[in-house]
Amino acid sequence: MPNALNAVDAARKIREGSLTSTDLVKACLSRIEQTDSQVKAWVHLDPEHALVQAVELDAIRQSGKPLGQLHGVPVGLKDIVDSSDFPAESGSPIFAGRQPEKDAAIVERLREAGAVILGKTATAELAFVQPAETRNPHNPDHSPGGSSSGSAAAVAAFHVPLAIGTQTNGSVIRPASFCGTYGFKPTRGVISRRGLLQTSKSLDQVGVFARTHEDAALLVDVIAGYDPSDPSCYSRPRPKMLDGSRAPAPVEPALAWFDMPYDDRLTPDAKEGVEELLGAFGAKVERLQAPETLSGLVTVHNTIHEYEICQHLEAEFSDHWDQISPALQAVIVEARKITQAQYEDALAVMASANSFFADFFNDYDAIIAPSAAGEAVKFGPSTGDPVFCTIWTLGGLPCLTMPLLVGEAGLPIGIQLIGAAEEDDRLLRTANWMLAELDTGATSS
Description:
By secondary structure, the chain is of the alpha/beta class. The protein has helices spanning 7-16, 21-39, 47-63, 105-112, 149-156, 173-179, 213-223, 241-246, 268-281, 292-295, 297-312, 314-319, 326-335, 340-360, 387-394, 424-440, and strands at residues 42-45, 74-78, 116-121, 162-167, 182-185, 205-210, 255-259, 285-289, 366-370, 399-406, 412-418. It has 16 helices and eleven strands. An eleven-stranded mixed sheet has the order 1-3-2-4-6-5-10-11-9-7-8, sandwiched between helices. It is globular, with a radius of gyration of 21 Å. The model has no long low-confidence stretch (mean pLDDT 97).
């Protein structure tokens, strides 16, 4: 079925004329109709509007006009992303019925690339703690992770080849791990956040979901770009993501693994899988004891995140307290106790961490780390422990999770690669090398 195609192949077939966008979109909509009553990945879907877009894009191709990189390919948007043709409710009754007048920057870029905006995917409440109704496509008794729950599930369930998410802690990497997709959060500042719900000006970052690392790279190439309205968005050239994902490593990459004090949170099957993976690569991976300052960054991250969400959404919290879940209310009550001095101290530590990472990657191509503590947790009040993502998000580093392991319940477990800031192409090249090594059978050296 066309909906099982990856994005690179689908875009190529549409350009060649062997597939129409209309047929691809119809196949995706059919798959959604068959399965989303159980998965619950989508909160806003307009099949008629999707097909109108597809027909128009097919007519453009037939006319011989220029085509974008994602011409005719459907994409899902996390429901904290503004789109002029869909509501943006951020998983909260506070924003029920909110209809943006303008597209977010990333939606503008998607349209320019010829993508079909299929609809809006479910998010945890205000992209934070209270889960959405979305279920894991591999087993509905389990969580898809959060907060980008619907985006991860939609890609894993073959509803769409690509979807947009965001990450302030672990909200792309963890759900991608739980759902068995690739998840890619590029360097902070590669992608504009204009038109997205802001929960942390220091930590909010855009990421993507796909079924191959090439697809993830292609999507980031499309939505990346400088935007002066976003203070985190830098005005230098971006890495060429797709080129990086296809490039061979010129030399064998230097990999590192940090033994962290929170590694005891790994489930036994995840720990066993990680050890087998590290054993397969042997001396190609240098095992390092994490300095206390590194592992202590988890607390620094939480201080910044919680202080800033209270600042950014203070009006919503104060005016709509009764529309906020008890789980989020409890976080807000504690977060309001964080002082400005504590916050400023945390920002200073964050800046020093950025310097540490810049120096570290002079000697290493990537860090290997777990993407999550193990298989998807059971569906319930938690979307899983984000701790294995926290410090890399704080550092704004590019992170890629790959579905390499399977747990004892038969659910996927991701392995994460972390690279140097603004060297996302190098990270993707290292991932390409790693996948090839595993495909041929890596041996210890």
